[in-house]
Amino acid sequence: MAESLPEHDRILQEIESTDTACVGPTLRSVYDDQPNAHQRFMEKLDACIRNHDREIEKMCNFHHQGFVDAITELLKVRADAEKLKVQVTDTNRRLQDAGKEVIAQTEEIIRCRVQQRNITTVVEKLRLCLPVLEMYSKLKEQMNVKRYYSALKTMEQLEHLYLPRVSQYRFCQIMIENLPKLREEIKEISMSDLKDFLESIRKHSDRIGETAMKQAQQQKTFSTALQKQNNVNYGRNMHLGRSRILESKNDITLKRTFEDDDEHEEEVLTAQDLVDFSPVYRCLHIYSVLGDGEIFENYYRKQRRKQARLVLQPQSSMHETVEGYRRYFSQIVGFFVVEDHILHVTQGLVTRTYTDELWNMALSKIIAVLRTHSSYCSDPDLVLELKNLIVVFADTLQGYGFPVNRLFDLLFEIRDQYNETLLKKWSGLFRDIFEADNYSPIPVANEEEYKIVISKFPFQDPELDKQSFPKKLPMSQSVPQIYIQVKEFIYASLKFSESLHRSSTEIDDMLRKSTNLLLTRTLSSCLQNLIKKPHIGLTELVQIIINTTHLEQACKYLEDFISNITNISQVTVHTARLYGLSTFKDARHAAEGEIYTKLNQKIDEFIQIADYDWTMSESDGRASGYLMDLINFLRSTFQVFTHLPNNNNDHAAMSGKVAQTACMSACQHLSTSLMQMLLDSELKQISMGAIQQFNLDVIQCELFASSEPVPGFQGDTLQLAFIDLRQLLDLFMVWDWSTYLADYGQATSKYLRVNPGTALTLLEKVHRGMKDSSKKNNIFAQFRKNDRDKQKLIETVVKQLRSLVNGMSQHA
């Protein structure tokens, strides 16, 4: 028990000195102690409490007097406090009365401050909204004045910069909803403007192309004039005197060219002047901003391809006038000028690849169209105009960077057609010249007329120059006229060769080829047709032969003429030659052949009127009338040949040769015709009187041949044409069959030219004639009795002749 008392003191001490929160463990220790510890602790606690109460009482007793003094002082203060309270209450009342106005002012100030704050807030919000409203108003104004690209930029600013700041307001939502609609409206409007633009350039393509072609032509004219000016300056030191004249002339020409260019400079408009390109720029920018640039490019290219096909489709009557071709080329040039402009002022809308592809397509179509329509052109002037248009067309587009080599290749095809139209035209000119010619030598009365003729045609004849006037030139009027027309043809052909960007050698070659065509085809055909015409007589044919000789000699002057205008020497290796030599030789041969043909035809006409009585008993004693007429005709004809002008030795030799050949041909044809008359299968019998009459006619033919109707035959050359007839008739007239049969096959035979078959045919006809004559005279019996030996002789000769004929057949 004694041990537990100190423990309780310790616990009490801890309770007094420890925080209330920490008392628990201490109190728990009371219950953990020995039994009845709690009771003892409570007793100890009570004792502790009594001790403290005694200490408190002691302390109160010690301070009681002071407390009483303090209460006394407090009571004294109470009265003062009441007075003070009244004063404070009065002061508070007066203060409240005075503060009511202040409160009212304060409340007014508070209200004003609230309003001011609200106003400030509104101003701040309005400051945020005003730019939005201003931009939207600006957008509307831009839409009204059709500044759609700027309107899209304004929309972009509204969406990304202004509207997000005030997106909580309802009017902003309305604006946001309207912006896509405005974009679609802008797209539709810009697309409508683009369609109007496409329609506009379609309508103005011809004017744009015409302007571009005019500018290209003026540039070419200017360059040509400038080149001439430079050439004059270059040659000034070499030929000073002559160059001053040329220089002054070229200065005037160049000055006029400059003046013309200045005059046209104000009139000529560019593509930008004729067409407003702003719609396509606008539409391109708008679609680019909207992200639909590719859609716009595809649409634009698709529409332009459609327009290209329309432009490339020609009118059906385009080939009839040059204006049709000019309009067609102007539209195409205008189309590609616009595309070239779009290519250079925009990025991506039109590419070089696209334009090249479009041009290649167009070029193929253009070439096909020109091939077709040019084939309808029959007027060389129209073809030449077409060529000039194609050259200007090609030069214009080449200036814009388009390849045009295929167009110049096409011009070579058109050149062939141009030559064909020229050949047709000159064929008519040649026919007219030949129709108007009198086919007689050209008479010249004096020196002036002679100079006029030789100024048109290069004629030289020293022998003729020595003769006095009046005199005659050997050729007819058609010769100088043909020569002049050939030169005109060369000039016309040269016109097409100009501006083809070809060398002088190529141009020279083209001129020579076309001239060869003129000579070998057109002129040759006209000569051949002329020779075949019925109204062309023998005299005209001889004159044609003389004319062709002079034209042939003039070919070398035509070659010099071509060399002079092309500045290409004839010694050049690749220089072609004119084929006039063969052309005129062929014409001469044809004329000679026609002379022989006409003579033979005339002979046939006389032969056809022959009226022999093949059953006559004896001849008339004179030649037949038709044969004498024929011989007189031949004699007069050959006299005409020999009286042709022989001023030139060549002409004399030629006319003599033609006359000799014609005379020989006529005699041979006459001999053949007479032989065929005897051997005609329809002629069944011939009397000896008819043989005698026929012999008289052949004698006249031989007399004609021996009379030398044409000089120059040697000996009896011409008489040999009738040798077959002569030997055959002699055989029957002499009745020398034994000699014929004995000498047959020998070179020395008297009847060497008598064919057994011919002799057999004629003998059978004579035999039948004898029999028929005996029957008619009713003395057949007497004939049998008196001429039995002759009859047997004829039968024997017939058998022997047949055996010879059969032997010849077997041998053959």
UniProtKB/TrEMBL annotation:
Lineage, highest ranks first: Eukaryota, Metazoa, Chordata, Craniata, Vertebrata
GO BP, sorted A to Z: Golgi to plasma membrane transport; intracellular protein transport; vesicle tethering involved in exocytosis
Superkingdom, natural source: Eukaryota
Example of a GO cellular component annotation carried by this entry: plasma membrane
Record domain Exocyst complex component EXOC6/Sec15 N-terminal: where: 44-213
Gene3D superfamilies membership: Dsl1p vesicle tethering complex, Tip20p subunit, domain D (1.20.58.670), Exocyst complex subunit Sec15 C-terminal domain, N-terminal subdomain (1.10.357.30)
Coiled coil: none
Purpose: Component of the exocyst complex involved in the docking of exocytic vesicles with fusion sites on the plasma membrane.
Keywords noted in UniProt: Exocytosis, Transport
Start and end residues of each Exocyst complex subunit EXOC6/Sec15 C-terminal domain: 407-765
Record bears the keyword Repeat: no
Family the UniProt entry places it in: Belongs to the SEC15 family.
Pfam families hit by this protein: EXOC6_Sec15_N, Sec15_C
Protein's name in the database: Exocyst complex component
